[in-house]
Design a protein that fits this description.
242 residues; mainly alpha; Four Helix Bundle (Hemerythrin (Met), subunit A); 11 helices
Length: 242
Amino acid sequence: MRGLAALGAALILSCALVSQAPAQSAGPVAAFEQEVAAVYAHYRRALFATNQKDTGASAQAIEAFAKGWSAAIGPYREAPPPQYAGDPSWSQTLADVEAVLAAAKVDLTQSGPEKAHETLERIRDLLWDMRARNGIVTFSDRMNAYHEQMERVLLGTYEGLSEKGLGDLRDDVAVLSHLAELLGEHLPATHVGNGEFAKGLEAVKASVRSLHDALRKDDLGAIRSLKQALKKPYSMLFLKFG
């Protein structure tokens, strides 16, 4: 996980930027981001399949992402698109993504889907970091920021929901609520007016609202249940649109 400092940086970027790419080079910038977004669908399926512990589907999705990534990146290896032209870590990031893919294939064969899933998670952070250091914010980055905070809420013990723990959880859910709202801003064209996306986004927001309401009522049983219920709507939105 990138940590709270990185999350703060992502929030600053998401509030400061009003587009997914610099306007001065919208053509090639948008073209590259769209190519990566198309390939990223295979990556999302790989994460979903490994999380479901489906070895066959995991292998297929990882291979599809590896082939798609190689094809999409090929023309840019020596000549990055404009938004990354000044990035000294461009070549290293590409190499790191490919190294993670190779490791995930080995992990899937030798250790199983759970280990492969853990390894694949690193690609999300590599691409997020690359865009952040170059001033780019995409819908995927907003999903990543939400996911990181959601994981913080899911994994936190909050001192067994003691008075102090409940206070800390309320603070974390407030941040999560803000990040959920950002998911609906500056959407890619493919998501605008898409009824399925709107339904999925509302399910994510509703899951946060329900937890917030339980916290207001100090309903410990509901809090424990609704905390875990955050994961499913996010996972479904991520799989289809993230």
